[in-house]
Specification:
Layout (H helix, E strand, L loop, with lengths): L32 E8 L2 E6 L19 H5 L5 E2 L10 E11 L1 H12 L3 E6 L2 E2 L1 E3 L13 E3 L1 E2 L1 E4 L2 E4 L2 E10 L4 E11 L25 E13 L18 H35 L5 H6 L6 H4 L11 H26 L10 H12 L1 H14 L5 H29 L8 H28 L25 H28 L7 H28 L6 H9 L1 H15 L6 H39 L5
Parallel strand pairs: 12-14
Antiparallel strand pairs: 1-2, 1-3, 1-5, 4-14, 5-6, 5-9, 7-8, 10-11, 12-13
Amino acid sequence: MCASLASLSTPAHAFYIPGFSPNIFKVDERVPLHVNKIFSKKSPLPYAYADLPFVCPSTHAKNEWLNLGEVLRGDRISTSDYELVVGKDIQCQLLCTRKVTAEESTLAKEFIANDYYVEWIVDNLPGATRYSPGEGLGDRLQPYRAGFPLGKIRWDKANIHNHVTIRIRYETQKEGIAIVGFEVTPYSIDQGSECPEDPVKPGLLKSVEGKDTEISYTYSVQWIQDTEVTWYTRWNRYLVKTDESVHWYSIVNSLVVMLFLTGMVAIIFMKTLNKDIGTLYSSEEEMKDDQEDNAGWKLVHGDVFRTPSYSSLLCHILGSGVQILVMTFSTIIFALLGVLNPSYRGGLVSFGLFLFVFAGAFAGYYSARLYKVFKGTSWLKNAILTATLVPGLLMSIVFLLNLFVWHKNSSNAIPFGTFFALVVMWFGISLPLSVVGAFFGQRKKAIEHPGRTNQIPRQIPEPIWYMRPRYTIVLGGLLPFAVIFIELFFILKSIWEDQYYYMFGFLSLVFIILLVTCVEVSIVVVYFQLCDEDYNWWWRSFFVSSFSTIYIFLYSMVFFTKQLSIDHFVPGLIYISNSLMICIVYGLLTGTTGFISTYWFLRRIYSAVKID
């Protein structure tokens, strides 16, 4: 069962991976509880729970195998000593008593003050707290908040949650039971070495105030049969419900912008071009005689396909842009099919990276095709630079940022082995595929341009002020941004506030509208530029649509100041650096879309004009 392609919002069965089935547990069978990490909305620095010096160490800790996406998102999953036995309720079991030094107590206090949450996992479900715990368990479809607070500030003191009540919800099946919910209710109890009989009324709180102390960790377990939620719909509780009308408003807003541009392009094709192409020219002499009646774009027919400045750099950038386009399209398709769902932890990042690596063949192919148009002489060098320029820039940013994260001992720091694996994927897969793609690309016949290019460049007249590049690029970039800025808010909340993004139907629609908008705005701007007899369109067609990435970066800075509470240097640096890398990728994607469509458009219109 998988998500329907026709569905925009996620249906009840959307998070079941095709071919997967529930884990069935028998009565009296032990169910493992894994500990993962602590995380906070106030800081993008997670920490491995098992490495915290003030919690109970596991006597049989075993690190679980993690995929690439899990490692990069800071997951560190290991086994624990919590005993969960199917059908067996436990009332306040002592886990351990930990002596905590003043330094460790201060560290716990800092984490609590920064609203860190704990993530545990049972049967691939993260432990969760309810949004409104005061309403009790009567509302079984009440949504979850992933994780539970490490502690809480009460009466100006940091109190650590050292007792948890674990509620395992299950549905009964023929062979046994399937887990459909994992709830954790934390308490802070000043219990000394004794386990209280009634943790719901704890009395004194266990504070950590920067001094030597002793913390006893206890837990209770309850098994609750759930008749309203099935294994196939168990992830629905974790999804933060948003008003779908907001997403529809985003779609309508995007369609209005797109239809406006579509109308302009239609006018160009149906009126202006038809009129201009209707008058065919047989000689340059006749063209000069009728210059007053000629369209400006035809006057530059001998220069419009002149090789631009920095043509090699343009090939490298556009090759990487094609690689990102292929990766993005493929990832969205997998997401629509229901494969990249929350139950596949780290799947989105893993799939995206592997698809990017294997899309290196497309990058090399397109870069080589364009390089041949510009009469390049070293296709192998071009292929190598295409495969290393943009990925090298991104990897350099990641490496430098990782130095700061390593210094903070965060689980978000990329281990050496993972970093080595990324380098191997880059140089061992992506680079060779780029060379292979370039090999086939340079063997293809060069793309033919209509007409000949003049030996002497035509003088470009002084443009009207609003047709200057700085105005057309800045204003043109506003339109793609206007298409996505509403959906962008939900994407940023998902990334930086640890919410599950699942509206892939809406996202795919907005993405398609975005690409169409980039196509149309680039064509319109370049056409009016050519009508002004300015034939330097190559780079402008790229920058017009890609400039929206500047607005997205500025929007992310507004989100940083208005929505987040990050007030430390390293977390702020992580946010800005990651936002910068995302904007670079987005700019390459939209800029390449605008360039490819404009290039096709110009070959079409100039091939329709007869010029001897």
